[in-house]
Amino acid sequence: MNDDRKYLRVARASDLLDAVRRAARQEQFLEVVSAEEARARFARHLDLTPLPGESVPLAAALGRVLAGDVLAPTDVPPFDRAGVDGFAVRASDSVGATDAAPRRLALNAEVLVCGRAPTLAVDRGMATAIATGGVVPRGADAVVMIEHTELIETAQGPAIDVRRAVAPGQFVSHAGSDIARGETLLRRGTTIGSREIGMLAACGLAAVDVVRRPKVAVLSTGDELLQPGEDLRPGSVYDSNGAILAAAIAEAGGEPVPFGAFPDDDAALEAALRRALAASDMVVLSGGTSKGAGDISHRIVSRLGAPGVIVHGVALKPGKPLCLAVVKEKPIAVLPGFPTSAIFTFHAFVAPVIRARAGLKSEAVPTVEATVPVRVASELGRKEFVLVALVAGEGGLVAFPSPKGSGAVTSFAQSDGFIEVDALTTVVDAGTPATVTLIGQAGSVPDLVVTGSHDVALDAVLGHLAGRGFSARTIAIGSLGGVAAARRGECDIAPVHLVDPDGDTYNMHLVTPGLTLVRGWQRMQGFVYRSGDRRFEGRTAQAAIAAAAADPACIMVNRNSGAGTRILIDKLLDGARPAGYGNQPRSHNAVAAAIAQGRADWGVAIEPVARLYGLGFLPLSPESYDFLLVESRRARAAVQAFLAALKDPAVRESIRGLGMQPHET
Fold first, then answer.
1. Of 114, 243, 347, 382, which one is least surrounded by beta carbons within 10 A?
2. Closest CA to 288 of 245, 349, 342, 326
3. pLDDT (tens digit per residue) in 3-60
4. Residue 566 and residue 557: Cα distance in Å, rounded?
């Protein structure tokens, strides 16, 4: 029995080492090709004609594409119709009518309202009261407006004096004058909007033939994936790609068919892909297409049938691991697992196929010209798409590169567009003009641009502005980045919390001509650690830092260069470089998460964030989180609303509730 256990331990250790070797041994891409070549290869194997038609109720036709010409089955209007309230007359009976010499006409004993068919003809010297939309009776060829008549009581009954002559056909819409029976009402390929719905309804059509939407199966793969609503486990993430791609498929004109997320298991994933192929017109899978351990998707796709994998590896950033395949004339796209990479490659390679099969025209890609304000490094040999946020600068639009990578869910959502960096370019210098390709409905700049350090209490202020109808964009690039943006006139407000290197005051040293300091609130920075850690419990923050810096087994988590907290950390360390110093995330939350998850032992963050993560907190020093105001923008309504919000009692109470202390105004 002991020998058996020893054998099992040896076997497990051997399996673990094999797994490590597989992870370290990168399987190469099939062939890395340009984006243009990838599209061309994919297109050669695809049918890009619209799918066959299907009949749908008119209420479900909005946004669909007509599968064939629609001929009008009836006239619109279907009868001669009055265009005004008045009286149906013979135009000849009104000749010469004036205020001084009216023409008197006897009234028929009926009133023609909408929906009532006439029973009496209009004979010479007669008139019939009629409402707008009423059927013009036999004998009448014009309608005189009620304003141009006067009711007269005679011995023979009611009559009217007509005080203005009318011409034949005046104020009459003749049958078929809008739509004539048998004419082509709408042509094949027309996208149905509200106007087209009205035309179809006017002809009495309750259903219409439209191009069938392509059914697109959506799958995700990864051992780490959980469905939204499940409890998050260590090392796990929620499957956001499935939801993002399903929505993007619907936006592109397809019908998403969610299949869910699957572990990195060959047999399970292959079975799911075969079911997806059988139930759809095309398949979109995200994850498992790179060249590391656990990336199995492209290998499974290659076994599904001919012609198989067409492209695996595209010279793009983000998006290099893209895999495009065709199996039994059905496209399969295996997208990278990182959200931004997935959505970029979807729009570049998959959405055009969906639109073509749905009968939709190619989208016109709107662009604007802007200036890139900071230096952007790029990888030689790959065309790079850099996501940017647009703001109004002193000399035109400014395109701020997103500080988040392709793994960030919010990168795409919080960007207005992207710039292309050529494969042979390694650096885009600050101040370079660039063409920005807009994303979605982007293009208008926000009412307020806030660039610099971020704080949870800032959301309370901006939420107040949103309630008053002002849109705001926050670009979190750290205090120093905010200062630089404010001095270049690329924002309205720059939040900062920088200690004066020659003293202990905050932010006053940042004021220069054209910039004014607006006081915000005070917050407490402190030493953050896991509660119960005996190395730090009961110490002061300064003593804890000294103990941590002296212990090589104690790992810190730092902050990014340019952040106010980083400047404070460097001042406290006084030149020391403890273990973990090189780990430099961009937010207080990231610092707290690293400590809470055991990837680091200590760091510096603000007290509200430490409490949010259930961490221990040793106060270091209070700091002022203030705002640099660009004076040339002070008069803007959104800026005035921001300044007023800082004084608003409800907003100030919200800030206190988050653990901050607003400065006196």
1. 114
2. 342
3. 555 444 455 555 555 544 444 444 444 678 998 999 999 999 999 999 999 999 999 9
4. 11
